[in-house]
Amino acid sequence: MSRLRISHRTGFRYPEPATASYNEARMLPHSQEGQFVLQAALAITPAATQHSYSDHWGTRVSTFEVLSPHRVLEVTATSMVDVRPVAAAGEVITWQELATRIPRSLALAELIAQTPATDPDEEMRALADRIRADRLDVDETARAICRAVGEAMEYRSGVTGVHSVARDAWPTRSGVCQDIAHIALGVLRAAGIPARYVSGYLHPDPTAVIGDAVVGESHAWVEWFSGRWRGYDPTNLVEIGESHVRVGHGREYADVAPLRGVYAGAGGSELFVSVELTRLE
Fold it and tell me: I want to staple 242 with a disulfide (CB 3.0 to 4.6 A). Which of 2, 28, 157, 265 is the partner?
């Protein structure tokens, strides 16, 4: 087991004062299998009243509005989480059983459908067909797809943007974790496996001294259904473990964006982000 403290600061700067802004944040983890949240809070500047709810996917959402003029909106999420690996227990269902379950479950039907961000090109579909042709079981096929995508991709920041989709990143074989997750989802779904985008955090240095803050970032990985939900991190080619903290999931990044909103004011806005993670034990 590991105990992690996370500080995630993000927000918007405006060239001219925004007279009002309306926002929602998905930045706080909640307790679930494999993780127990000891503390989680959201601080907003300028001060604003928060309202919380769980969205369609079960992600914790905080909504708030700022109705006074402001040049900067800053949101800081702090949390302390105990994380332990989840054993990959449970029987893997057959391909025939999976095909039977999908139309009977709204959640599975939603997560087998491609989205604009995951829609595969011909090469991605061919990769799904090649791995399916190996006649592995559902779990083995899903892991083979995630490994194939992760091994093919080079992690490079700056070559894609927040609105990039799988079809943008796959031809160049480069992008960030968001792109790699979208590509893996596109190939998984093309292979007939329901899969979902997971947002959260990853402590980047398992050798870090306890108590030392490490610069990190928001992270993304995937989960697929094979009788139960199982996850894999294709960016780092690792199983989900005690360095991963889960915030939420959806069909793609747009369902779990950490901060989004609209504002009244002239000019554009500039997003800023910083994340620090600290091992506490």
Answer: 2
Q: Is 2-84+257-279 a domain of CATH 1.10.10.10?
A: no
In the Cβ-directed half-sphere of 110, how many Cα atoms lie within 13 Å?
12
Domain map (residue ranges) of the chain: 2-84+257-279, 95-255
* Alpha-carbon span 250 to 198, nearest angstrom: 7
0.85 surpassed by pTM: yes
Cβ(77)–Cβ(25) below 8 Å: yes
Chain position carrying tokens 């090109």: 121
Residues 142-200: pLDDT tens digits? Answer: 999 999 999 999 999 989 988 999 999 999 999 999 999 999 999 999 999 999 999 99
From start to end of the chain, where are the E strands? 2-18, 20-25, 35-45, 50-54, 60-66, 70-83, 154-155, 174-175, 195-202, 213-216, 218-225, 229-233, 238-239, 244-250, 259-264, 270-279
| H helix runs in the chain, sequence order | 95-101, 106-112, 122-132, 138-152, 166-169, 177-190
Rounded Cα gap, residues 10 and 43, in angstroms: 11
| CATH 3.10.620.30 correct for 95-255 | yes
Q: What is the DSSP letter of 254?
A: G
Alpha-carbon dihedral angle through residues 147, 186, 138, 92, given to the nearest 10 degrees? 100
**CA-CA distances (angstroms) from residue 74 to 66, 70, 187?**
11, 10, 37
